[in-house]
Amino acid sequence: MNKILVKYINFPLQYKKIKKELLGTIENVFESGNFVLGPEVEKFEKNFAKSCQTKYALGVGDGTSALFLVMKALGIGTGDEVITVPNSFIATAGAIAATGAKPVFVDADDDYNINPRLIEEAITKKTKAILPVHLTGRPANLDKILEISDKNKIYLIEDAAQAVGAKYNGKKVGSFGIAGCFSLHPLKNLNAYGDSGIITTQDKQLYENLKKMRNHGLKNRDECDFFAFNSRLDELQAAMLNVKMKYLDKWTKRKREIASFYQKKLSDIIKVPLDKPNEEAVYHTFIIQANKRDDLQKFLLQKGIETKIHYPIPIHLQKAAQYLGYKKGDFPKTEEQTKKILSLPIYPELKKEQLELVVNEIRKFYS
To answer: 150-168, pLDDT tens digit by residue?
Structure first.
């Protein structure tokens, strides 16, 4: 196998640049003796809420737990329906199903996000929420989705797992709906060193309820108001995330620069994602749509360039979703995109010559 010249992701490069700060903050946590729901978690929650332009933020164990806990806190469960997309990571629908509710899918639009023109026909008397996914770090059409949720008196819950820092009409995602749910998994733009997540909300009552729900339903150390779950952001992870928060804007700017480079160099031969005037995507992934996608992926790997497919099998065609009764052909846009999508390397540490190699080899393939 050829030597990998451009890895799809390269965690050690980021670590090297902030190693001293990370190790210092880890040592501080060990010396403090605070390991669960300590001052680092509180600091991170305040920092994240401020960054996200929300009143409250609450650290939890992972992004899937964020989705699940919000729905449970809103009383969503057996007999209810939640509208979402079939082209996300499996966790979006999985979190809905875990509450006992039924995932109801609506096809994607050209931007990979939920098609707002198709949402209302999926609403029934059982619909309790719309759960759009800001896929690839690009905001969904929140104006239209908010209009629909308000009109039908159903919750808007944002799956912002891939979109930390993204803006819609100048406002951060995660601040539009009743709650925003973020993943801080190692692959995300703001990444922990393991599973972590955070919830944002403007609603004080929801925040207070979630605060107990993530911690066994405890009112305090000795009193339990209701039986609940154990999904808390780890103090060590919060400490390291506090270090990384200082670099998030810089990293986001660099990812947008890389996206711009790809757009300028490739838009004449393949379909590339482009921001609309009211959007500011953060490019968790940079997904092109390519003819002969599988051949292109093999060709690039032979040239030492790693790529990925996010995601090769849509949720409605997964074995886990068979009970929902969907079949091939039900979501034509999603299924069409699945055959063409390819994620190119995009992370701040990529060098100019690596980016030029990616672009040049893609152009060679199509020449």
So the answer is: 999 999 999 999 999 999 9
Mean pLDDT of 260-277: 97
Query: What stretches of 37-114 show up as alpha helix (H) in DSSP?
Result: 39-52, 63-73, 91-98
Tokens of 302: 């032979």
Q: What per-residue confidence (pLDDT) applies to 1?
A: 58
348 vs 251: CA distance, rounded Å: 6
Q: Is the pLDDT of residue 41 over 90?
A: yes
Strand order, beta sheet including 167-168: 171-172, 167-168, 279-280
- The DSSP line for 139-171 is ---HHHHHHHHHHHT-EEEEE-TT-TT-EETTE
What average pLDDT does the chain have? Answer: 97
Model confidence, pTM: 0.97
**d(Cα 112, Cα 333) in Å, to the nearest integer?**
9
Please count the residues of the chain: 367
DSSP at 277? T
The conformation of residue 179, written as its DSSP 8-state character, comes to E
Question: Could you tell me the two tokens for 152?
Answer: 């039908």
201-231 pLDDT, tens per residue?
999 999 999 999 999 999 999 999 999 999 9
Are 34 and 40 within 8 A, CB to CB? yes
Q: What is 301-345 written as a DSSP string?
A: HHTTB--B-S-SS-GGGSGGGGGGT--TTSSHHHHHHHTTEEEEP
Q: Structural domains in the chain?
A: 12-245 (3.40.640.10), 247-366 (3.90.1150.10)
**Tokens representing residue 144 in the block:** 């239209």
